[in-house]
Design goal:
The relative contact order is 0.07. Helices cover 15% and strands 15% of the residues. It has six helices and 14 strands. It has two domains: 208 residues, Ribonuclease Inhibitor (Leucine-rich repeat, LRR (right-handed beta-alpha superhelix)), CATH 3.80.10; 111 residues, no CATH class. The chain binds zinc ion. The site of zinc ion has 8 residues, from loops. It comes from Gasterosteus aculeatus aculeatus (three-spined stickleback). InterPro entries: Leu-rich_rpt, Leu-rich_rpt_typical-subtyp, LRR_dom_sf, LRR_domain-containing.
C-alpha cells in the first residue's frame, strides 16, 4: 500500500518537477515524506494535510528558499524539531491544526515573514515568548489547546488583526493589549477569564467572542474597609513617580543615573480615577463597559474591564463607575 502511494507521489513529482510551484500530497496515507521532495526547489506551496506524519520532516529544509505556504493539518505530529522550523524562514502560512503538538520551540522566531499561524486543536500548554519576534503575523489561531497563560510578548505582533484563543484554560489576558491597535477579531470564548485587561475598551474591535468564561458580575454589596496603610517603599515610590513627571524636577534629572531604581519603577502604574501614580499597592476594580456605547459594537451586552485605583479614598469618592472586586 505504501509503495503504491510512493509510486504515485513520485509520478506526481516527475510531472511537476521544475514546472509547478505547488504540490498537493494530501490524503495519501503518507507516514514518511518521500526524500525526492527535496528536488523540488521551486516549490512554494506544499499540502501534506490528512496524512499520518508524526514529525515536521527534515526534507522540508531543502525547500527553505522557496516554500511560503505549508499545510500539515490533520496528521499525527507530536514534535516540531527546532532545526526544521528554524530553516523555514520564508514561510508566510503555517497550518498545523488537528495534531498532537505540546510545544512550539523558541526557534519559531526565525519565521519572520509568517503572517498566518494556525495550531488549532493541539495539546499546547504554553506558547514561547519568542512568538513576539513574528512581527509580520496578522492571524494567530490557538483555539482548543491547553494554554493557561499567554506571553505579554504576543502584543509585539502589532500587525495582528485576528487572535483566536478560544477553548483553552486562560485565567487572564496579559496587560498591554492596547498595543494591538489593528486587532479586529478576538475570540476568547470558553476560557476562565474573570475580567478583560486594563484599557481593553479602547481597542477598535469588530468582533468579540467571550461566552463561556467566569466573568465577574455586577452585584453591588456594602463593605467596610480598614484605613489603608502604605509601606514606606510604596510611599517613596509614589513620591518619586510623581516628581518624575516634572521635567524640571531634580528627581527627573537624577533618575537615569540609578538604573536599578528606574527598572523597579518601570512597573509603576497610574490610578484610573485621579491619575496619581502607584507602584505595588492598588485597589483592584472593574468597570462595566457597554459593547454598544463604549466600543461601537452591535451587541448590547456589557463586559467587565479591569481598572486599578490608587486608594480606597479614590474608590469612596462619589460619581465614578468603578467597582472594587470582592472574592467570595
Ligand atoms: Zn486615585
Amino acid at each position: 500500500m505504501l509503495l503504491l502511494h510512493l509510486d504515485m507521489t513520485k509520478s506526481v513529482m516527475r510531472a511537476l518537477y521544475g514546472k509547478s510551484t505547488s504540490l498537493n500530497l494530501s490524503s495519501r496515507k503518507i507516514k514518511v515524506v518521500p526524500t525526492c521532495i527535496s528536488r523540488l526547489t521551486n516549490l512554494k506551496i506544499l499540502l501534506l494535510n490528512n496524512n499520518s506524519i508524526s514529525s515536521l520532516p527534515a526534507e522540508l529544509l531543502a525547500l527553505q528558499h522557496s516554500l511560503t505556504k505549508l499545510y500539515l493539518y490533520s496528521n499525527r505530529i507530536t514534535a516540531v524539531p527546532p532545526d526544521v522550523i528554524r530553516g523555514l524562514q520564508n514561510l508566510v502560512v503555517l497550518n498545523l491544526n488537528h495534531n498532537q503538538i505540546q510545544r512550539l520551540p523558541p526557534e519559531i522566531k526565525s519565521l519572520s515573514r509568517l503572517r498566518h499561524l494556525s495550531v488549532l486543536d493541539n495539546k499546547l500548554e504554553e506558547v514561547p515568548v519568542e512568538l513576539g519576534h513574528l512581527t509580520s503575523l496578522t492571524e494567530i489561531n490557538l483555539t482548543s489547546n491547553n494554554l493557561s497563560w499567554l506571553p505579554q510578548q504576543l502584543y509585539q505582533c502589532k500587525e495582528l488583526t485576528k487572535l483566536h484563543v478560544a477553548r483553552n484554560k486562560l485565567t487572564c489576558l496579559p496587560e498591554g493589549i492596547g498595543a494591538l491597535a489593528k486587532l479586529q477579531v478576538l475570540d476568547v470564548a470558553g476560557n476562565k477569564l474573570s475580567v478583560f485587561p486594563v484599557e481593553f475598551h479602547l481597542l477598535a474591535l469588530g468582533e468579540l467572542y467571550y461566552e463561556g468564561n467566569r466573568f465577574v458580575r455586577c452585584e453591588p454589596m456594602a463593605s467596610v474597609r480598614d484605613a489603608q496603610v502604605l509601606t514606606l517603599k510604596e510611599l517613596a515610590a509614589r513620591f518619586v513617580l510623581r516628581e518624575d513627571r516634572y521635567r524640571s524636577s531634580r528627581v527627573h534629572m537624577m533618575l537615569p543615573h540609578y538604573p536599578t531604581l528606574t527598572a523597579l519603577l518601570a512597573d509603576g502604574n497610574c490610578c484610573a480615577l485621579c491619575l496619581d501614580p502607584f507602584l505595588a499597592t492598588w485597589v483592584e476594580c472593574v468597570r462595566f463597559i457597554s459593547l454598544k456605547k463604549d466600543m461601537k459594537m452591535r451587541s448590547s451586552k456589557t463586559i467587565p474591564v479591569r481598572a486599578l485605583l490608587c486608594s480606597y479614598k479614590c474608590l469612596n469618592t462619589d460619581g465614578h463607575s468603578y467597582y472594587a472586586v470582592a472574592t467570595r
